[in-house]
């Protein structure tokens, strides 16, 4: 595991859960801030390193999870690609489409298999929503919207120098709302064009902490994304809505985890128990990392889990939204 920042605890917690016990073992961890690695090493009794290449050379590893700054995912993957076959890379795959393509082309050349973390796809409520879409219950989907109203204060951004930087963090779109960009694409399809506005509402950072974006999907559907880390005094929601000619669904909560609205022109028996698929995680990270790693284990020889070629479009959209916001709302075609 490379990177011992805030998200690492979610990966470690999932791997050490009862359902994955004796199926995945963490052999070693690495962080350039060695004090972080030492804390985790002591707690879980695993080896720690300051240099990831040394770790890869000295340990007998099957897979490496890259949990570093988003802007460094490509760099770190390229440095490690020949040491192991399997990789987990945290979201987003990268912040630039050219870096995403480097990962894809290198993985294809070297025979690597890369799994990109999109844990919210494994939320029970989201899985039911995807199922309803696949069954055609919405009819013609004409609108998809997502809202990210989270709270990240100055203390959060000061925890690490890379936070809030254009090239390493990507702002609210590249970091926090990347989940919701991916979700809209996964549920509705690829995006044709975007136009966005952004501002630094409260945080004193290089990138935007607040962005609104209009989306046009290749299917003809429209989309709206509202994302901010300037919600005060605490997180409000992380939600998504899908509207079609025959049905409307809204999944709310902090991390797209609660079924708020579920209505169709033709209701079916299973709809009566739909609200039991809501979950109540204690944080915006949700419970999806466990489902993600379970799926990785079950899919090492298949293409069922998100691979680089599937994640490249999400990176292109993130890149386009940020570019449009910087240019004051200019429409960017993908």
TrEMBL record:
Domain Gfo/Idh/MocA-like oxidoreductase N-terminal: start-end pairs: 1-116
InterPro entries per the UniProt record, alphabetical: Gfo/Idh/MocA-like_OxRdtase_N, Gfo/Idh/MocA_Oxidoreductase, GFO_IDH_MocA-like_dom, NAD(P)-bd_dom_sf
GO molecular function ontology, one term from the record: nucleotide binding
Domain GFO/IDH/MocA-like oxidoreductase: residue ranges: 127-249
Domain of life of the native organism: Bacteria
Name this polypeptide is given: Gfo/Idh/MocA family oxidoreductase
Organism: Candidatus Pelagibacter giovannonii
């Amino acid at each position: 595991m490379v990177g011992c920042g805030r998200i690492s605890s979610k990966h470690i917690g999932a791997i050490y859960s009862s359902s994955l016990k004796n199926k995945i073992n963490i052999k070693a961890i690495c962080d350039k801030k060695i004090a972080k690695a030492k804390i985790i090493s002591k707690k879980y009794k695993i080896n720690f390193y300051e240099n990831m290449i040394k770790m890869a050379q000295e340990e007998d590893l099957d897979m490496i999870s890259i949990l570093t700054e988003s802007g460094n995912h490509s760099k770190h993957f390229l440095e490690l690609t020949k040491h192991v076959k399997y990789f987990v890379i945290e979201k987003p795959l990268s912040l630039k489409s050219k870096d995403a393509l480097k990962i894809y082309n290198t993985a294809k050349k070297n025979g690597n298999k890369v799994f990109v973390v999109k844990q919210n796809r494994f939320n029970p409520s989201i899985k039911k929503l995807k199922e309803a879409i696949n069954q055609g219950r919405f009819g013609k989907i004409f609108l998809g919207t997502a809202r990210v109203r989270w709270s990240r204060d100055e203390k959060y951004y000061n925890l690490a120098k890379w936070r809030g930087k254009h090239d390493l963090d990507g702002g609210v779109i590249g970091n926090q709302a990347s989940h919701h960009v991916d979700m809209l694409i996964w549920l509705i399809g690829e995006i044709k064009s975007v136009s966005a506005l952004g501002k630094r509402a409260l945080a004193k950072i290089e990138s935007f902490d607040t962005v609104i974006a209009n989306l046009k999907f290749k299917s003809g559907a429209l989309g709206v994304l509202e994302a901010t880390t300037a919600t005060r005094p605490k997180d409000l929601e992380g939600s998504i809505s899908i509207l079609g000619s025959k049905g409307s669904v809204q999944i709310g909560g902090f991390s797209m985890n609660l079924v708020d609205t579920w209505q169709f022109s033709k209701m079916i028996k299973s709809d009566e128990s739909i609200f039991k698929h809501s979950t109540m995680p204690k944080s915006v990270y949700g419970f999806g990392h466990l489902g993600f790693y379970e799926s990785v284990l079950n899919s090492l020889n298949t293409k069922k889990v998100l691979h680089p070629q599937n994640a490249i479009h999400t990176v292109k959209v993130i890149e386009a939204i940020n570019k449009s916001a910087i240019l004051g709302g200019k429409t960017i075609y993908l």
